[in-house]
Amino acid sequence: MPFRPVTFSSAVRLIGKVTLDRGEQMKKTRLAVFASHYIGEATLNSCRDFRDLLKVQYVVTDDPAKKYTNAKNRIWNCGYDEELRSLVMRQCSKFGIPVIEGRIKSQATIDVLNSFQSDGILVSCFGQKLPHWLLEKVDYAAFNIHPVIAGESLARTRGPRPLLLAAESHATRIQLVIHRMTTEFDNGEIVARSVSVELPKQTRLWQNTPQKYRREILAYWQLLSTITAEMLQKELPSLFGSAVNTPV
User: Fold this and answer.
1) Who contacts 96 (Cβ-Cβ below 8 Å, separation ≥6)?
2) Which of 62, 160, 195, 214 has its CA 20 to 30 A from that of 71?
3) E strands, the chain, where?
């Protein structure tokens, strides 16, 4: 089905129709998802697998063409086509979930996000820092997915280039973790870990000339998206299943 953007301003788009069902919101954990790329798609699909437990109220996704998403220093640095850029948006269209694009700090986006009352937040490959008021709105029931050196904390792989940082630390294996979010980037208690996977030896070359190695880089992120899905299948119920829904 075609996208039908509702323009709030030049800085934000809300794609899709918002349906408020009091009964459904009362019995399910209402979730806000901030996601993009392959890992974002895997995260959204995993949430849908638990749709009897979770209701994804909306998704905020990257527009890598915008400077505020820091695309050149992140997962998008090897390039992208329209199919990859719109991957999460197309999934949302398929599932009937509203999609928001825009700068988190803009008043237009703030107004849209404030119109929802969520119980929890899940972040997976998103290029903007969530403001403290948004975390407070869900009583810090907010979690992020991020790569770390296998068996280690977030300390050595914080920031937009975790794979490069792991390679520079001479790591040979990485894993994904789910951690509680704080007001700092990639900080907070680790609550779950995925299986570990080998870190390719050419990772440093990927970062130096990413477009040359585009096929290999995208294949590796697809592998990590599969691992993301496996981890979430085990962890989602415990992360959000006990959230207390408040009446709307």
Assistant:
1) 16, 17, 19
2) 195
3) 5-9, 12-15, 29-35, 54-60, 99-102, 120-124, 142-149, 173-180, 190-198
Q: Is residue 117 part of a domain?
A: yes
Tokens of 245: 């829904």
Residue 199 inside a domain? The answer is yes
CATH number, domain of 213, equals 3.40.50.170
| Number of CB atoms found within 10 A of residue 242's CB | 9
Which pLDDT value is given to residue 163?
95
Residue 211: what pLDDT? 87
Query: What pLDDT score does 118 carry?
Result: 95
Q: Beta strands 12-15 and 5-9: pairing type?
A: antiparallel
pLDDT at 13: 52
Q: What is the pLDDT of residue 21?
A: 47
- Counting the structural domains of the chain, the total is 1
Residue identified by tokens 């009897």 is 52
Residue 132: other Cβ atoms inside 10 A: 11
Q: Which residues of the chain have pLDDT under 70?
A: 1-26, 242-248
Q: What is the pLDDT of residue 5?
A: 36
CA atoms of 9 and 44, how far apart (whole Å): 26
Here the tokens at position 161 are 């280039």
- In degrees and rounded to multiples of 5, residue 126 shows phi and psi of -135, 135
Q: In sequence order, what are the residues at sequence separation of 6 or more whose Cβ sits closer than 8 angstroms to the Cβ of residue 120? A: 29, 30, 31, 32, 138, 141, 142, 143, 239, 240, 243
